[in-house]
Write a structure and sequence with these properties.
Mean pLDDT: 84
CATH superfamily of one domain: wza like domain
Oligomer: single chain
Shape: elongated
Number of strands: 7
Largest sheet: 3 strands, antiparallel
CATH topology of one domain: wza like fold
Distance between the termini: 70 Å
Strand order of the largest sheet: 2-1-5
CATH class of one domain: Alpha Beta
Helix content: 25-40%
CATH architecture of one domain: 2-Layer Sandwich
Structural class: alpha+beta
Length: 142
């Protein structure tokens, strides 16, 4: 009788353990790591303003708007294509253009006013009380 009771208790404990462990299994694959924020580079577009800093040459440092044709003009560098580039790529292009006039130029470009390329704009039109263009940003909600 005692052995029967012990055997019944043992099987009951095993049954409870199997039931509980069955609830803990996960048949879903792990969610992928989100790295999109770290990889995103803002693309300059018409209407943006960029601050160009030329190290050791403050007379060449200035803030300029990106024209509707996507180009910028600065002293010594005329009609340089800015649209479709990120800030670091534009800085390297300005450095290449300035190499004709300055020895080893170091340029930093900071986007100070964001409108973005046409493909990254949200347009509020129609009978809106304030029609406007908004720059799109990741994880934007309405």
């Amino acid at each position: 009788m005692k052995a029967k009771r012990l055997m019944f208790g043992f099987f009951g404990a095993v049954l409870v353990a199997l039931t509980v462990s069955g609830c803990a299994t996960n048949n879903y694959p792990a969610a992928p790591a989100v790295a999109a924020d770290a990889e995103y580079n803002y693309v300059i577009g018409p209407g943006d303003s960029v601050n160009i800093v030329v190290w050791r040459n403050p007379e060449l440092s200035m803030s300029v708007p990106v024209r509707p044709d996507g180009k910028i003009t600065t002293p010594l560098v005329e009609d340089l294509q800015a649209m479709g580039k990120d800030a670091s790529t534009l800085a390297r292009d300005i450095e290449k253009a300035l190499e004709k006039y300055i020895r080893e130029p170091v340029v930093t470009v900071i986007v100070t006013s964001f409108v973005g390329p046409y493909s990254e704009q949200i347009r509020v039109v129609g009978e809106a009380s304030e029609p406007k263009i908004l720059p799109y940003s990741q994880k934007m909600t309405l």
